[in-house]
Amino acid sequence: MKLTSKGQTAQLSASVLPNNAENKSIVWSTSNASVATVDNNGIVTAVANGNATITAAALDGSGKSGSCVVTVEIPHVSN
Fold first, then answer.
1. What DSSP string runs through the chain?
2. Cα angle vertex 29, ends 23, 30, to 5°?
3. Fewer Cβ within 10 Å of end Cβ, the chain: N or C?
4. Sign of the dihedral defined by the CA atoms of residues 39, 5, 33, 70, in that order
5. Can you give the pLDDT at residue 65?
6. How many other β-carbons are positioned within 10 Å of the β-carbon of residue 17?
7. d(Cα 41, Cα 60) in Å, to the nearest integer?
8. Which of 14, 18, 17 is nearest to 29 (CA)?
9. pLDDT digits (tens, 9 = 90+) for 47-60
10. CA distances to 5, 11, 49, 75 from 72, in Å
């Protein structure tokens, strides 16, 4: 995923399977909050140029997770 402006957002989604799983809770995290942040709903916000890995992890004790690399490339504007 690529974001190209500071404050730009994108929605990520994750699912816990099977559909009848007892605990379908997910926790979101970022590897680099100075590049991109993620909230509890999977909304990623660009902060500054660089790369960050956004991870969604199941809270059911299975250790299962998925991730997405986010690249932030904010063009330099000269005055």
1. -EE-STT-EEE-----SSTT-S---EEEEES-TTTEEE-TT-EEEE-SSEEEEEEEEESSSS--EEEEEEEE-PPP---
2. 160
3. C
4. positive
5. 95
6. 9
7. 17
8. 14
9. 999 999 999 999 98
10. 8, 15, 5, 10
pLDDT at 79: 65
The tokens of 9 are what?
């957002």
Angle of CA points 54, 56, 61, to nearest 5°: 145
Please report which confidence band the pLDDT of residue 21 belongs to, taking 50, 70 and 90 as the band edges: confident
